[in-house]
Write a structure and sequence with these properties.
The structure is a single chain. The protein is α/β, with parallel strands linked by helices. It is 37% helix and 19% strand. The protein has 3 helices and 3 strands; from the N terminus they run E-H-E-H-E-H. It has a 3-stranded parallel beta sheet with strand order 1-2-3, sandwiched between helices.
Length: 81
């Protein structure tokens, strides 16, 4: 099924030092063909960001964004919007 930009459903996940849980959630979700899964790392931890980026590199429907500092939940979600 092909979707246009106006009917895409994106998902935003804010990660804060829980890469293992975030990765488990994305794994449980499976392939997301409805839009983009945005993972916003808010951890201020280089290792955490690298773990997410490396572990999700083979999933083209997932985009990892790394906040320059902990922005809080709401502002981190705004990165995806």
């Amino acid at each position: 099924m092909t979707h246009s930009a106006h009917d895409a459903i994106d998902i935003a996940i804010v990660n804060y030092k829980t890469a293992t849980d975030t990765l488990a959630g994305i794994h449980a979700l499976g392939r997301w063909d409805q839009g983009i899964v945005w993972v916003l790392d808010n951890s201020e931890d280089l290792h955490e960001a690298q773990t997410l980026q490396q572990s999700l590199a083979d999933r083209p429907w997932v985009r990892v964004l790394v906040a320059p500092k902990n922005l809080g939940f709401g502002r981190a979600c705004n990165l995806a919007f």
